[in-house]
Amino acid sequence: MGCLSTWTFLLFLLEITGTFSQGTWGSIMGTSWRPNPAVYHNEDNYEWTTWFNVDHPGGKGDYEKLNAIRFYYQARVCEVPRALEARTTEWIPARNTGERVHADPALGFWCVNDEQPVGRNCSNYAVRFLCPKNIVSDNEELIWGPWSEWTVCPAQCNQVATQHRSRSCKSNSKQCNGQTLEARSCQGPPCPRCDLQCVMGKVNDECDGCNCQDHTVLGSVRSAGGLPAPGAAILHAGSRPKLLTVTDHNGHFLVPGICPDGNTTLMIKLNNHAPQQVTVPPSTERTSVLILKLERAKKLYVLKNPENKARREGQTAAFCCKVNGTPEPSQYEWFHNGTLLDRSQYQYDETLVLRNLSLDHIGEYYCRASNENGAIKSKPATLTVIGQKAPSCNPKPDSHLIRLPHDCFQNETNSFYYDVGRCPTSTCTGKLDNGIRCKDSVSYCCGVSNMEEKEIICQGYQLPIMVVTQCGCKTCVETKAIVRGRAIAADTDEPMRFGHIYMDGTRVSRTGYKGTFSIQVPTNTKRLVLTFVDNMQKFVNTTKVLPFNPKGGAVFHEIKLLRKKPAVTISSRETNKLDLGEVEGQDPIAEIEIPPNAFYKENGEVFMGNVKASVTFLDPRDVSTAAAAQSDLNFIGDEGDTLPLRTYGMFSVDFRDEEGGESLNAGEVKVRLDAAQVKMPEHLKTMKLWSLNPDTGLWEEEGQFHAEKKQRGKREERTFLIGNMEIRERRLFNLDVPENRRCYVKVRAFRSERYMPSEQIEGVVTTLINMEPTPGFSTNPRAWGRFDSVITGPNGACLPAFCDEQKADAYSAYVMANLGGEELEAVASSPKLNPNIVGVPQPYLNKLNYRRTDHDDPRIKKTAFSMNVAKPRSNTAEEANGPVYPFEKLKECEEAPFSAAHFRFSRVEGDRYDYNTVPFNEDDPMSWTEDYLSWWPKPMEYRACYIKVRLNSAHEINVRSRNMGGTHPKTVGQLYGIRDTRSIRDMDQSTVSAVCLEFKCSGMLYDQDRVDRTLVKVMPQGSCKRDSVNSMLQEYLVNHLPLAVNNDTNEFTMLAPLDPLGHNYGIYTVTDQDPRMAKEIALGRCFDGTSDGTSRVMKSNEGVALTFTCGAKEVTRQSMFQQMQNSLGQATAGSARPGRGNRRQRGGSTAPRSSKRRSTRNSYTRAQTVG
């Protein structure tokens, strides 16, 4: 056997020496072979066969054996081949692959996977053989087809390459002898003349720059945060950047030959950093020095999402998408219903234009932008296309039931409900031109186009009601989305006073003395990211992604802040270890190890003094920490999708110079995670370190972990996951794993426990906390892994959750709901579980293991429920209709009919009732109607008015305000609406109660032409006598004529003041962009009896307008409210919760009503949807 030290294609082609002849074999590994200049030479009576490929590299390897080739191709190979040649299917010669291969012309060619380097398999090879020429007859030539034209020569200028031509066999019965492919050498074109002129030095060989032999560029590169940047690439910038060198371990580099002419530009590239270009300045020195500091690369982030459009057939629609990042996106792609659109057909970039629309264009559109570092997808936009003559909106209104007053029982329907109709909330075409624009200049929505007045027969009187009879396409009501809330400590509820709030790096607001804040959401915002910064340095800087109602209105959020851990003093010259773990009695989850001399100042100088180190850890083993978690635990995947993370803990770091207080960075920090704390083995392989981008609220990868065993004691050996990171400008980090087992949980919120479709509430913040898996895992059942919040819309909310199909109880979750700070109640699960009330049928409900939080202990709040997030099985019919939906069926979840299974929350119903002559849904601004009798005369400027009434009685009294037109000629004597409210007993005086009663504010009506002073009657329901009227209020009314007649001492009548008077008058007025928030603020002041305070406890003696004394006979709840909750009302409303007849017995408590009101005042303040 001969061992060939060099094996090239030329050996196969030489006539005399070097071919693999019969009986010899050769093996090669990593040898350097030259390209074959010619595949076929008509010389010496030998020629090459066609290429054969009969095996693939799966299994043990790739075996192109001669006997197998003869089996498949019969006589195409001669009996005794002279030599063989091999290449991969990618046309790479075998000599260039670096793989160990074997060849023998008598046996064939083979490559064995086990002989290759670790982690590598053989390529897929093809072979051909050198055989004697056959004497071809004329008849044989006739069965070959003609040769094709030679391919274009691919050679570059002044270079040699190979071009090919081919032919095919025309015979179906006879074997064609000869070649199907021929190749020949070809010469590239002459290179163009180099016209580059050099001010200094000489033109280089590539003609792309100047070379100065006597000049050297020295440089230092530092990463974001000032740390040295080893491994940074230094390139010559241009149309084709050329690598010159890379930085050493200190971030230094040296490049000789660069001309200091002011025209030479270098580019510096470093992983996870933005590329930076620098021009070598003009100089006459022999050396130039460059000092560079790189910036962190900005991940792609969507600035503008495409917007929903409605068009008619034949019109044009444009969708726009704007993405920012470093570098800028190099490509935009558009998708329709998940399918990539052909760029050559639509000619799109960041704007997609669809012309001559048809019904085929209906659906969802989104863009995907990408650059060299990744991709990101926009939110989808929906395109609605309707026929030329089809109505833009369905003219027939949907059914919508409103509740009538207690004395208006309807015999026709056998209920207290009346159908007033409403128009669907959807976009429509309107009168749009064919202009191409990203945002329509005017937005059109379906709304009320016609209403009729009806009369409802009540006990002793008739009640007017406006009923929607026709819907049409209207200009959308302009809305403003508001986010309100308060920022407080997670441990003690201490407010963050006068803290700053940032959005996109810009300060947009600040918190008040009580931690309260209010922010208007910018138009077209899809994802609201706010960062709360405490000036007093008590709390960790906290970034939150806050859901809001895109239809407008205010949403309340309580921001829980982690208190900063007290700083400890460490020496920068020593190795320091800081534990990450906050659960008493349990080992830390991880530790941070900082080696000596690892601290740096902002300018990159090594810090050698003492360091004040504060590391605050959010430990998910304590479920109470979930509310304080930062952001929303999402990241952007390689394909641009927003994907979820499951956390094993977050930590915030703050390193400062002990003396000067300067913030310090740290390099080469090691994070050591205890593998025993990772309860799911598969997570050990996918655990990563992440840092939070405070501008986008998204987590970005910082590094990966590797396993390392460590001896603890003589017998115990533990495994740790080791990750390396740098602490630079970002100070919040996360130990997370991506999780792909995802579902959605359907939740709806209601105004009452009747759970009627018409009483659903929008703007409720629903939250789901994923708990750690339990069965099959050794785990702390109170540990959480992820949380998500979603705002309810007209059809509820779909909450993301981790789920499992194989084990129903593998993942569990807690679900809760909050409206303006009020916690809504979940449906009871004990003493009896009623599937009809819960909203989920059996047997699926049992599988989900629904439990309200007070299931085992009635003293616990009723404001949440737990469940198993069992992924529905595709072949089980009862699991195919909610409340849990597979991740790919989000649209089905969002559009699920009311009859589909869902979980329910309801408000803790207060003793109040609202009736509007013109129905209006405070959750839907489009339900507002231009009518003189509208309670709210102007959308987006809601004015709430309350009067405080004190009642001397041993019992709680129901009080009504009847609101009618007073001075406006269009409405005088006509009813605006009714408000009924039950008084609240004083905590300290058993014979005193008080009520804050809403009335319609005076002011302009919808046409803004003239004011109307509302005629308001305040009527306690029972044997009551008016004792006194606030003297300042009485004086105001006397001085602002006309004066209403007040002959009846059982009630009080006034023409409501035009001015916002305040607590000294017993009148409380608040104007806001959201009706619920206006009521909330006004009620808080009324309860407190002040003009600027707020209270959840009624203060009966403060800020009172009217005082009545009532007889001993109690006006029972039955006379006012119980009738609206009796069995007749339930017959229409659907199933209701049992055990709620007596409000005082709620939750098994026997506390007085006044103390009970501490927790229910918020529910009392919310207006009912009546439209």
From TrEMBL:
Residues 282-384 form the Ig-like domain. Keywords: Extracellular matrix, Glycoprotein, Secreted, Signal. PANTHER family: CARTILAGE INTERMEDIATE LAYER PROTEIN 1 (PTHR15031:SF3), CARTILAGE INTERMEDIATE LAYER PROTEIN CLIP (PTHR15031). Residues 1124-1171 are annotated as: Disordered. Its main location: secreted. One of its GO terms (cellular component) is extracellular space. It comes from the Eukaryota. This is Ig-like domain-containing protein. Residues 1124-1133, 1161-1171 have a biased composition (Polar residues). It comes from Culter alburnus (Topmouth culter). SMART domains: IG, IGc2, TSP1. It is found in: Secreted, Extracellular space, Extracellular matrix. It holds the Pfam family Mucin2_WxxW. The keyword Glycoprotein applies. Residues 1-21 form the signal peptide. The keyword Signal applies.
